[in-house]
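Protocol step 4 of 6: record predicted structures for both targets in the notebook before any analysis. Target 1:
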Amino acid sequence: MEGRLRKIVGVVLLYWVTSISIVFLNKHLLSGRFGKHDLSIFVAWFQCLVSVVVLLIAKSATRYVSIPSLDLGILLNSNVLLLSINFVASLTLNNLMLKHVAVAFYQIARSFTLIFTIILSVFMLKKSIKCLTLFSCFLVICGFFVSVEEEEQSGTLSIWGIIYGILSSLSAAFCAIYFRKVDEVMNGSPIKIAYYNNVNSFFIFLPLVISTNQLTYVFSSDIIYDYFFWLYLFLSGLMSLTIGWASALQIQYTSPVTHHISINAKSVAQTLLAIMYYREVKTFWWWVGNMLVMLGIMSYAFFKMKEEDKSIPKSFTKKPLEKAAIF
């Protein structure tokens, strides 16, 4: 029992450290400390490159990671391509949003992901909406507008940050839908999904990173000699790869409900860390808005898990996650 408890604490800690670190690393990379030129697409592209390279190294270095050879038919499958296109859009918009908003406001700016996921589930997956789901959405929307109003009053509101945040939420919701569809194509292999998705995304990003001159800027300016820039880039790519694996381990050692609770608790910790690190001062109503968003997301997760528990037969035994989990 004591050994299992240590594993649970270790897995939750791994998820928290990874998830919080990637937000702070990306903010540091996009904050203008490495030049005024926009690097949002280059950072996302490089993260995909790191993910593919690390997976290939892991495949050759250990027997615990099994990655099949690329199948062109699967790579060009319509659902796989749509997943990658939305993944590229989500990463790009998320970086653009993070460039314009403070880390403390990150969770609020991305809060519409839940709203869009529910809407898309209704229209694309033919799911029904229950009153409890609408209540969760109501809490999120109220919290979003309360926080935005407080940001405006304090003079720190970025309209572009809000726009990018809403668009990033929409693309992230599309990603969630297509992940479900691609799961059937990949026979439920999370590593295979990550591998194919990152390979596709790398090539989709390539014309974008070239046409925006971000690739040219990096390799023609003094930034190419900045060791810290490449260190932060590599670490952000490693963290983006690790986050899915850490999420899967957290679900495996706890439960889906505990995982969602942990996500919300992590978001609160991330907000507190950002406020302390950047020495920001927030109003009472700003905190109320944040808590409403967190409560809405957490209540939706709780209602959803209760609903799924009722639909599972008593004789059903949950299949364990794969050893290598999700990247």
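Target 2:
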Amino acid sequence: MNKVLGAVLSLHRVLLSEPTPVPDDCIDHRWKWFKGCLGTLDDTHINVLVSNSGKQRYRTRKGTIATNTLALCDRNMQFVYFLPSWEGSAGDSRVLRDAVARPNGLRVPQGCYYLCDNDYANSNGFLTPYKGVRYHLKEWGIGNAQPQNPKELFNMRHSKARNVIERAFAVLKMRWGILHSASFYPIQTQIRLIMACFLLHNFICLEMNNDPFEASVDGESSAIAPAQDCTQPDYIDYVDPTPKWTQFRDSIAMTMWNNR
């Protein structure tokens, strides 16, 4: 088993994508507003089999027994980090705080950030949409009114960019049938199988130019040119809302509105 774990750790180093921030000269209409953004993050619940004593902790709000898996992906739908070991009852913000605080956990350079939804706090390194303002893509469909103010425009463009993580999850689960239902293995083995699926997803993305699973998922996909590294070497080590980060979001929204 130690050899297997060592092999998985080696695959982590080889197959996990190294994110690059959106550059100042980006022309991609989905990403050019989010300078310094490294990608997107979200959680997904993956069904697992646990003992009766553990079912309460792994039970989600929908009543399923699952692990709450945090994942981050870059603009190319390749995963840069994932944490599949938390119980399904765990809140998303709690899982993210744990990922940031862990030794060798999630590392977000100062000055860079990820897009995430309102299940997380709008804080340094993690940019959320405005609450109480329409957000989901279906709310911006054909015939719906165009954005009426900076907050609505920000939310629409945030949603279009952040959709990449939803598409990555969709492709992942379409490709690996073992993620559709709980498997009859010890929970540690189930967690490692989930990890292997994430890593193999990245491997296929690197090796396959035309992925039929990706083609079957709605939305656009485009190659991303390499960008410069974040200039600041320090990493974010806590997740906490601040007025400064609220002002940062407001400044992006006003830039979008003034240049629409």
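Step 5 preliminary note on target 2. The chain has seven helices and five strands. The first helix runs from residue 2 to 15.
Proceed to step 6 after PI sign-off.
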